[in-house]
Design goal:
By secondary structure, the chain is mainly alpha-helical. The protein folds into two domains: 80 residues, no CATH class; 44 residues, no CATH class. It is built from three helices and two strands. A two-stranded antiparallel sheet has the order 1-2. It starts with a helix and ends in a 27-residue tail after the last strand. The mean pLDDT is 80.
Length: 126
């Protein structure tokens, strides 16, 4: 039961990273890949490949979680990598929502991040 709760939290995190990095479709696909890969590696693959090693239980536990961590890292650093990056928390000019530093689209209205416009005195508008 604890394992499923941890998996649910991990998938929600993957989807949140994916959504903040550029899209709901990519977020959903990445979340499904995390959960689907976990179940395949945890339950289906060990049934197909029998191992006499005493370390097989450790591998059977760590391999699926490694997959979940890999999809989480992809959602955080891979998605939206070609978009402008804020580098710090930023306020959406469209809806005034405060967004996380890794978000390349507004988490409220899906407006893409863009560099703040410069004022006449050379400072950025806030």
């Amino acid at each position: 039961m604890v394992e499923l709760a941890l998996l649910a939290m991990a998938v929600v995190t993957v989807v949140a990273f994916g959504r903040a990095r550029g899209g709901s479709v990519a977020a959903a696909v990445t979340g499904l890949a995390a959960a689907g890969g976990y179940f395949i590696l945890r339950y289906a693959l060990p049934g197909l490949v029998q191992s006499a090693s005493s370390d097989s239980d450790v591998v059977r536990f760590l391999l699926p979680w490694g997959w979940v961590v890999a999809t989480m890292l992809f959602a955080r650093f891979g998605l939206g990598r070609k978009r402008d990056k804020p580098g710090q928390q930023w306020v959406c000019p469209n809806c005034n929502s405060l967004n996380r530093e890794y978000a390349v689209v507004c988490e409220t209205c899906d407006q893409p991040y863009s560099e703040p416009a410069e004022r006449g005195d050379g400072r950025s508008q806030s």
